[in-house]
Write a structure and sequence with these properties.
Number of domains: 2
Largest sheet: 13 strands, mixed
Shape: globular
CATH topology of the largest domain: Aminopeptidase
CATH architecture of the largest domain: 3-Layer(aba) Sandwich
Radius of gyration: 21 Å
Order of helices and strands: EHHEEEHEHEEHHEEEEHEHEH
Number of helices: 9
CATH class of the largest domain: Alpha Beta
Strand content: 25-35%
Oligomer: single chain
Length: 321
């Protein structure tokens, strides 16, 4: 039985065993257009085997699993993969959570491999822990058609459109922070200072897929100068593009700025020759879902992020030791 199998630290494990599991993770992530790029499998296996990245796994030719995380300051970002139909999820999650250092303030955990029944059961079990937040998300997709060529070319009302790279990372990061403040989406990049700027830097450097400068833009109010919104896109394949972020200054919502940016982005992606476009949205973000539906986007796949924040009393107890 899977429940009787021991969860082992990945430190000191054979790299080929870890690479086999990580290939499964990458395959499942790629199926929902979230696959890591480059030599991620080999590099991550080396880090896990060397102990520089903490992880736990259950080896096996059939039912196997892996859980690991990376640190970014006080935040940890992890992933759990278990073979479909197995009951390894709770074992791996327990190993990961129980071995978190006391100075880790939060953990974001994604999942692959688990079938829907086992994933729901695992998330429900984890959600009982104090400090837990469950963030259901869905990918939405639509085809690009000749009608998209009739999308808006210039922003409304005297606003200016400019390339994203004309902005500083600080300005773009502040717009990103303000756009999602007070929602579950702000948890996805972490609350520690500079977290969203680091993620945007990785995006612009192409570490999340080739950044599409031609189909990404920012919108500026010229007098007084103020950044109002931006759309950021990447290439996932020669036929598919991704809208990674659609940001609008909260004080300028409900004025059609998000609709303009999305319509302009679809127009640019059509001109670049892409056949379809996908984006991710949290189910709690109902206004965004309604906007995307009005443009013809439809759900294609779902995923869950489990977020754990260390309770204040626990953090205080740790710091007093």
């Amino acid at each position: 039985m899977a429940a009787a199998r021991a969860v082992r630290p990945t430190a000191g494990a054979r790299r080929d065993e870890l690479e086999e599991l990580l290939q499964q993770v990458r395959r499942d992530l790629a199926a929902r257009d979230e696959g890591p790029t480059g030599a991620w499998v080999a590099e991550t296996a080396a880090e896990l085997a060397a102990g520089t990245k903490p992880g736990w796994f259950v080896p096996g030719a059939g039912a196997a699993g892996l859980a690991f995380y990376a640190r970014r300051g006080p935040a940890a970002y992890g992933h759990l993969h278990a073979a479909p139909g197995s009951d390894l999820g709770p074992l791996l999650a327990a190993a990961l959570l129980e071995h978190l250092p006391g100075d880790v303030a939060s953990l974001d955990l994604g999942f692959t491999g688990l079938d829907l029944e086992h994933e729901r059961a695992l998330v429900a079990e984890l959600a009982r822990r104090p400090g837990s937040t469950v963030i259901p998300r869905q990918a939405m997709e639509r085809s690009l058609t000749p009608a998209d060529a009739r999308g808006p070319a210039e922003p409304p009302g005297g606003l200016e459109r400019l390339p994203v790279r004309a902005l500083t990372l600080e300005a773009l990061g502040e717009l990103d922070r303000a756009s999602f403040a007070g929602t579950v989406d702000e948890l996805l990049l972490g609350r520690e200072p500079g977290a969203n700027q680091r993620a945007l830097e990785a995006l612009l450097e192409g570490r999340l897929g080739r950044f599409l400068d031609e189909a990404s833009a920012a919108m500026l109010e010229p007098e007084p100068v103020r950044l109002l919104g931006a759309i950021l896109t990447t290439e996932r394949s020669t036929r598919r593009a991704m809208v990674v972020a659609l940001m609008v200054d909260p004080s300028r919502r409900r004025l059609g700025l998000g609709r303009f940016l999305l319509g302009w982005g679809l127009r640019a992606l059509w001109a670049l020759g892409y056949e379809c476009v996908r984006l991710w949205v949290s189910l709690a973000n109902e206004p965004a879902i309604r906007l995307y539906e009005s443009f013809g986007f439809r759900p294609v796949v779902s995923a869950t992020i489990y977020r754990w924040d260390r309770p204040a009393s626990s953090a205080q107890a740790q710091s007093a030791r």
